[in-house]
Amino acid sequence: MRKAPFRLMGALVILMALPAVAQQFSADLVRQKPAGLATSKVMVSNARLRFEAAGAQGKTSIVVIDLDRHDGYMILPQASTYTLLKTDRMPLAMPFFRPPDADDACAAWEVAVDKPKTCSKVGPETLDGRDTVKYKGVMQNGESGNAWVDRKLKYVIKWEGEKTAAEFQNIQEGPQDASLFAAPKGYDKIDPDAERQKRAADDKTKKKKPTVATPKPQTNN
């Protein structure tokens, strides 16, 4: 039942939060590579992002990320649960980052992927009517490609690499409701770390439990 949410997680990214100005907008996250990935709806409010995607049988999965806290949660509305996430454990799909200056974004990119001296500026480019600056660099996994930084939003809005490609389309600037980025009230919280610790403790207890030998039944010769 959780395959669709984890596919959404796989499509998400680790984002570096370097706030400069208030940034609030919504967009469609369209993924061109690999083929066959669904489009997600994205809402952005400064360091917080909310991704919504329709899964199998029309079930919706939601992931909310807080860039400043480096954490977030996956929400399953149909199950009324949300699972705590650590963004440093999420698989990377795109090197999104928020540079304080769109015309000098290499430092932010290199910090985001932890790969110094791998970024170079290509130059200004208009992308779907938006004023952007194109850069060449690498993802954390070493994949090389290009990223386009929106001058007004100070966000990466497109990535095109060797194996992955995605971009924000239909960008609508404007305030986003704070409730979109809050943990849902009345939902059960699932803490993977706590569950792992509990399982480890249970396994440890089982190993320490003494084994009682069962006597074999005697037979009469």
Notes on the structure:
This protein is of the alpha+beta class and 221 residues long. The chain is built from 3 helices and 12 strands. A 12-stranded mixed beta sheet has the order 7-8-9-10-11-1-2-3-4-5-6-12.
CATH architecture call:
Clam
Alpha carbon gyration radius: 23 Å
Helix tally equals 3
Major sheet description: 12 strands, mixed
Mean pLDDT, all residues: 82
Query: What gap, in angstroms, lies between the N and C termini?
Result: 59 Å
Order of strands in the sheet with the most strands?
Answer: 7-8-9-10-11-1-2-3-4-5-6-12
Order of helices and strands: HEEEEEEHEEEEEEH
What's the quaternary structure here? single chain
Q: Strand share of the residues?
A: 35-45%
**3D shape:** elongated
Please identify the structural class as seen in this structure.
Answer: alpha+beta
> Could you give the count of β-strands?
12
Q: Which topology does CATH recognise?
A: outer membrane lipoprotein receptor (LolB), chain A
Determine and state the CATH class.
Answer: Mainly Beta
Which range best describes the helical content: under 10%, 10-25%, 25-40%, 40-55%, 55-70% or over 70%?
10-25%
Q: Give the low-pLDDT segments.
A: 13-21
**CATH homologous superfamily (4th level) name:** Lipoprotein localisation LolA/LolB/LppX
The tally of structural domains comes to 1
Question: Topology, please?
Answer:
Blueprint: H1 3-11, E1 24-33, E2 40-45, E3 48-54, E4 60-66, E5 71-76, E6 81-86, H2 106-113, E7 120-127, E8 130-138, E9 144-150, E10 155-161, E11 165-173, E12 188-190, H3 192-208
